[in-house]
Specification:
By secondary structure, the protein is of the alpha/beta class. The chain folds into two domains: about 1-75 and about 80-130 and about 200-295 and about 400-410 and about 475-535, FAD/NAD(P)-binding domain (3-Layer(bba) Sandwich), CATH 3.50.50.60; about 150-185 and about 300-390 and about 415-465, Cholesterol Oxidase, domain 2 (2-Layer Sandwich), CATH 3.30.410. It has 13 helices and 21 strands. The protein has helices at about 10-20, 40-45, 50-55, 100-110, 115-125, 155-165, 200-205, 260-270, 275-280, 320-335, 420-435, 455-465, 515-535; strands at about 1-10, 30, 65-70, 75-80, 130, 145, 180-185, 215-220, 225-230, 235-240, 245-255, 270-275, 285-290, 300-305, 345-350, 360-365, 380-390, 395-400, 410, 470, 500.
């Protein structure tokens, strides 16, 4: 089989690219995804994210593990990533957050010309179908449905009020003129029509409406083994289904959209990457590119949970499960209620101190107990709050455990390798404790899980014992113009013709917030860059 464009990875970026490129009936597009079709009830019902994120069992989830982290007492971290059409947008909390304009201006300052805020905002708008309508910072009519939560819990509103007690003022829009403040997240969820209340993954918003196009071929449950190279040019993908290997040819371009872990892994398996890494695995070096797999950044997250005497939060006890079942019936009827909840309903962005010019800490407030990514279950009703450092200084890497494509990559986030991150995280944890102890949450507040004596040493020990990712890995195929850059500002792999990377791995630095909306924006702009390249052929 041969196509004009072959895309590896049907996640957030790959779904957008396949849909946008196939709008041109004169070109053919093939999308290859390792996971399934992305349409099952676990994905469509927002509340059922809790059944997928733990990876026990592995449902639409790669469920990766990291190498031991010295900064986290030698623990191996957990990295859930989506494995289905829609990728991680199929298993995330659906939170629609863009970050701060300064994040994108910093990209441009680091050599990613054309990726400043002024250039990126039109692509956020192109993607968006916001329930609130169009404005200078929002749009309607795009493929990605962005909604207000239809029925947030009273405890989430109490959380916002509690943030006010800590001098974090309420905001109605984290993507407005300023990000700072506390409020309820908007979510990527259908807000009208027959799919009202369902998750709007990138696949649901972009790809599924395009699936009947004759020029688009979507292959699921196929593992990408490597990029096929000939005379320094990418000419296709080698893929596998079961024991059967197949080559998919690309007349114009191969595009890797396998994410911050998958895209560098595929490059290295193809012989593109750091020479020492490739030779250690017995892979012939096709093109030495030292930055592949480097520059890994992620948001380290610390959680405090409380049991609750109230029944209007989530509990895994018989009463709570009965209420959840009833909520499921309501959701099937009208798309509203608890089953439509993102679970992480409330949040806040705030500064760690007056010397900081913009928010560098984020809260996620969850209407149930979250312990070790839902892998440690508690039967009590309860709630949780997360805090993460938005712009970490720590850096990690992605490498190969061996040369077998089915083997998970070697993931080393390097959490807390820079002492500045721990200092800021401790400030955020202290503010979080203040918020959770505030009077508005008193009716819901029961017993705190993992209490400590309140000392600085005890807080640091608890962070090192329990902190882990909040699921925002980026940066491992960084764009730029220096020798460590993997792709140029047009997202073309440096030194290899006909090959691009389009996903969160190209971000030079983390954005100040959740990464799904920015990844979709990157793919929207990449589709235009690809078209511009065609125009210049």
């Amino acid at each position: 089989m041969e196509f004009d464009y072959v895309i590896a990875g049907g996640g957030s970026a790959g779904s957008v690219l396949a849909a946008r490129l196939s709008e041109d009936p004169s070109v053919t597009v093939c999308l290859v995804e390792a996971g399934g079709g992305g349409r099952d009830l676990l994905i469509r019902a927002p509340a059922l994210v809790a059944a997928m994120v733990s990876g026990r069992p592995r449902l639409n989830n790669w469920a990766f593990r990291t190498v031991p982290q010295p900064g986290l007492n030698g623990r191996r971290g957990y990295q859930p990533r989506g494995k289905a059409l829609g990728g991680s947008s199929a298993i995330n909390a659906m939170l629609y957050v863009r970050g701060q304009p300064e994040d994108y201006d910093a990209w441009a300052d680091q050599g990613a010309d054309g990726w400043d805020w002024g250039a990126c905002l039109p692509y956020f708008l192109k993607a968006e179908n916001n329930q609130r309508g169009a404005s200078g910072l929002h749009a309607e009519g795009g493929p990605l449905s962005v909604s207000d939560q239809s029925d947030p819990r009273a405890v989430s509103r109490a959380f916002v009020a509690a943030c006010g007690e800590a001098q974090i003022q309420e905001t109605a829009d984290f993507n407005g003129s300023t990000q700072a403040g506390a409020g309820l997240y908007q979510v990527t969820q259908f807000h009208d029509g027959p799919r009202r209340g369902e998750r709007c993954s990138a696949a649901a918003g972009y790809l599924f409406p395009a699936m009947d196009r004759p020029n688009l071929t979507v292959l699921t449950r196929r593992l990408v083994e490597k990029v096929d190279l000939s005379d320094g040019r990418a000419t296709g993908l080698v893929i596998r289904q079961g024991g059967r290997r197949q080559r998919i040819g690309a007349r114009r371009e191969v595009i890797l959209s396998a994410g911050a872990f998958g895209s560098p892994q595929i490059l290295m398996l193809s012989g593109i990457g750091p020479e020492d890494e490739l030779r250690a695995q017995g892979i012939r070096v096709q093109h030495a590119l030292p930055g592949v797999g480097q520059n890994l950044q992620d948001h380290l997250d610390y959680v405090i949970s409380y049991t609750s005497p109230r029944t209007d939060v989530i509990g895994l006890n018989p009463g709570g499960l009965a209420r959840l079942a009833g909520a499921g019936l309501r959701w099937r009827k009208d798309g509203q209620g608890l089953f439509a909840s993102p679970m992480a309903e409330g949040g806040a962005f705030f500064r760690s101190g007056p010397q900081v010019d913009r928010p560098d800490l984020q809260f996620h407030f969850v209407i149930g107990i979250v312990d070790d990514h839902m892998r440690k279950l508690h039967w009590s009703n309860g709630f949780s709050c997360h805090v993460c450092v938005l712009r970490p200084h720590s850096r990690g890497s992605v490498g190969l455990n061996n040369a077998h494509p089915a083997m998970a990559p070697r993931i080393d986030p390097g959490f807390l390798t820079d002492a500045r991150d721990l200092a800021v995280l401790k400030v955020g944890a202290r503010v979080m404790e203040q918020v959770l102890d505030a009077p508005p949450l008193a009716p819901w507040r029961g017993r705190r899980l993992y209490p400590h004596d309140g000392s600085d040493a005890a807080l640091e020990a608890d962070i090192r014992a329990r902190a882990d990712t909040i699921y925002h890995p980026v940066g491992t195929c960084r764009m730029g113009v220096d020798d460590q850059a993997v792709v140029d500002p047009a997202l073309r792999v440096r030194g290899v013709a006909g090959l691009r990377v389009v996903d969160a791995s190209v971000m030079p630095t983390l954005v100040s917030g959740n990464t799904n909306a920015p990844t979709i924006m990157i793919a929207e702009r990449a589709a235009d860059l690809v078209r511009m390249g065609d125009a210049g052929r």
